[in-house]
Amino acid sequence: MDKVNTNGTSLRGQFDMQYAKLVEIIGEPNAEGDGYKTDVEWAFERDGVVATVYNWKDGPNYTGGGRVEDLTEWHIGGHDQRAVELINVLIHEH
């Protein structure tokens, strides 16, 4: 998979889902978190729409404790609201 250019993306939405279920649906994380405020990230591009899914300030990198596998709150990043639509499609295609 080619690296997705996520420059300029920002928060567009949020959802709750168990980490294991999210991995089951969209696969293993395929992008690098920042090592501080995020622990895991996925990046997607379809038909020119870029979307990311990531945790924010609730994982071990930021809090100093816990496990990535226990995360349930996810942020959707993108250039516009179409990012949320793309993630919804990816989740519901499963």
Record the SSE blueprint.
Layout: E1 10-16, H1 19-26, E2 41-46, E3 49-54, H2 60-63, E4 73-78, H3 82-93
Antiparallel strand pairs: 1-4, 2-3, 3-4
User: What is the end-to-end distance?
Assistant: 19 Å
Largest sheet: 4 strands, antiparallel
- The spatial strand order of the largest sheet comes to 1-4-3-2
User: Could you say which structural class the secondary elements and strand pairing correspond to?
Assistant: alpha+beta
Described by its quaternary structure, the protein is single chain
Explain what you see.
The chain has three helices and four strands; from the N terminus they run E-H-E-E-H-E-H. The radius of gyration is 12 Å and the shape is globular. It has one domain (10-93). With 94 residues, it is an alpha+beta fold. A hairpin with a 2-residue loop joins strand 2 (41-46) and strand 3 (49-54). 26% of the residues lie in helices and 27% in strands. The chain starts with 9 loop residues before the first strand and ends with a helix. It has a four-stranded antiparallel beta sheet with strand order 1-4-3-2. The mean pLDDT is 95.
Keywords:
27% strand; 94 residues; 4 strands; 3 helices; 4-stranded antiparallel beta sheet; alpha+beta
Brief overview, please?
The chain is of the alpha+beta class. The chain is 26% helix and 27% strand.
